[in-house]
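Reviewers asked in the last cycle whether our approach scales beyond single polypeptides. To address this, we selected a multi-component target totalling 829 residues and predicted its structure end to end. The input consisted of the following lines:
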Amino acid sequence: MKINKGLSTYASMLALTGGLLAASGVQAQSEDTECIAPAKPGGGYDLTCRLAANGLDKTGMIDTPMAVTYMPGGIGAVAYNHVNGVRDDDPNLIVAASTGAAVNLALGKFGQYDADDVRWLGALGVDYGAIVVNADAPWQSLDELMKDLKANPGDIAFGAGGTVGSQDWMKAALTAKSADLSPRKLKYVSFEGGGEALAALLGDHIQVFTGDLSELKSQLESGKIRVLASLSEERMGGPYADIPTAAEQGYDVQWPIWRGYYMGPNVSDEAYQTWVQRMKELSESQKFAELRKDRGLFPMSRFGPEFNDYVLDQVDQFESLAKEVGLKQ
Amino acid sequence: MFDFLIHGFDVALSPLNLGLALLGALLGTLFGALPGIGPINGIAILMPLAYTLGLPAESALILLAAIYTGAEYGGRMSSILLNVPGDAGAVMTTLDGHPLAKKGLAGPALGLSAVSSFVGATIAIIGLTLFAPLLAEVAVMFGPAEFFALMVFAFASMSVMMGKDPVKTAIGAVLGILIGTVGVDSSTGVLRYTFGLPELYDGIDFVVMIIGLFAISEILLMLEHANRKDGNDGLPPLGRVFVSLKEVLACKWTMGRSGLIGFIIGILPGTGASVGGAVAYTTEKRLSDKDNSFGTGNMRGLAAPEAANNASAVGSFVPMLTLGIPGSGTTAVLLGALMLYNITPGPMMFSERPEVAGGLIASLYIGNIVLLALNLPLAGVFARVLTIPRWVLVPGIAILAFVGVFQLHSNLAAIYLMLIIGVFGYLLRKLGFSLAPVILGYVLGGLMEQNLRRALSISGGDLGILWQSGISLGLWIAALALLLLPWLLPKLWQAKTSKA
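The resulting structure, written as structure tokens, was:
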């Protein structure tokens, strides 16, 4: 009977995990609402989906919790194709997106589909780009850095968590451009995620890190970095109150990183409006404001057609920038 | 100075947290044991649950950290029993772990790997407690050029695995590097070998690679032999169940050295348990493989990667806790969990939130003891898995992996890819290739290329940057020594003796 004991232990191990997986699988197929995170678990898109799911749940705006499913691949392209080709009219499905998705659309990386092939729903929060240097660096302001950069572009290496052409690179490129320096002259090093780039900044391997405000909170407290500028319209509050914007230092760069959602192209107007209304209400509620703050995001209120236009405009802008620097013909 | 730790033990020993550490250890062992889930996904899936349950921050972190360390214990099981690595850190464990199981020593192998895991992790936790802030300073000294030199060193240390057929080992490693190049190029964003398929943009997933290469190819081999009646479907005789104290003691230095190597490599952001395991294994083979029995079921060959991968897992907490920089994919997810609780890791955390920092470290000590207590007596039970015919077991694992991979991709492309890689792995095995160099090439090649290109974009194309710093120069010299000494030493020896 020893064999049976071993067998049953293992079988129950399998059953347990199988059950766990099956349970979430079943959830995704029911009639309830669903959010697709076009990435692996644990990334930014996962958090974007969870932001909507937890918000809708905590405010009691939906009865059964929203399911979050993962569809990694093609930095979001696989999910984009899926929503266009397969679940194009699902009234209960939203997909997480961000400024990064708009950049990829502009570069034509989502295959045959364009930015106007889905219905953009709205954003529930926004983060802003930041220009960061090591605390021991010689530059005290963005202006000092930019003047130095124009004089010796080869001596200052920028780095961030994305490839050339990604939204992280765009921050560096636009900053250079605002100082009349061609982004093609910029020395840019791409890392695997903002964390590695930050480590390289702390170790003095790169001189400038173009990150996001929300990921800098702990470093700000430790005093190991200096944030020369936030790429926002106005100064942000809380721990970021002392950080000047690029604009107030005479450089016209803004880089909002919105966290939003889209729906399939053939979703009915009624279903679309229901979701727009839902998102609006959610973003105005007090409970949600706390959730948003916990995730280091700032409020953003653009929904429905207004958001749709905003995204399409943005994609156009990125496209012309990409052409200008030779990333796209 | 260690107030935070005393406070931490207070926190970790509360009934709720102790229970969560136990639960986490169990779940983690399970996640690690089943290929296709792994610690990253296990934690990412359970993290929202912990948050929704309203667990306080330190309890959630204790649960998630226990899952992480548990997974490093669990990963060895399918490596030893089935020759299918359960997670990235357990690739090297297959090399000697599975041959031991084939000899009927599955029980002792599992027991020894549990002890090695414990020793490795304990070394790393003590290192974490004593030197974390100091080590973090050293970790950031590793820039792209230093990482490139480290990868060169890792490849050089693999030369010891060349074994009987150096050409095939080299070809295998190159094939692995090739597979690793598929996807969006990480520095320019250019698509490489994606054939217009968006499913390939992100490259080939580690789980897809492992299951295809190891499990599917195994099934194909079994199918081939299905009609052959040789009276035995590969069942090894089940010998004794427990590892003897003598066997453990024989590996004590191996465990110590490998734990140290694993810890140091784990601290460096971006390298993980797989690199730690590989360097520890090859170092150990060089130091203690007197009769050339590594790869055929040597106890030391099993103890080395097991001590190292657990030490690496703990080591990756150093940059996360002290700098807020994740040292591995799993700590990146843990960092996300901390943010969810509005806790910002960094040096301030030890003074501002001692219950979180101390509680986590204390729970690592406790979790490890729990895991050893859980794994030692159960080794015999787990070993009996082998009495299930392999034609049930391996396809069963593959089916579970299919479900797991589909769950994480919501897409059949990953499954097809897994099957294609399976056929590829089968062909390699038929041609007499060993699979470990392929996997190592795949893991290390990507890191090596990325860091080389980063270093060169920093220097503007000047190769000098690669050996400018003391760290990288030291690694280059060590790599050269690894390659040349085995060839030079016998000659010098000969010259000496002939003179005499």
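The CA atoms of residues 41 and 93 of chain B lie 21 Å apart. We regard this as preliminary and will revisit it once experimental data from Aim 1 are available.
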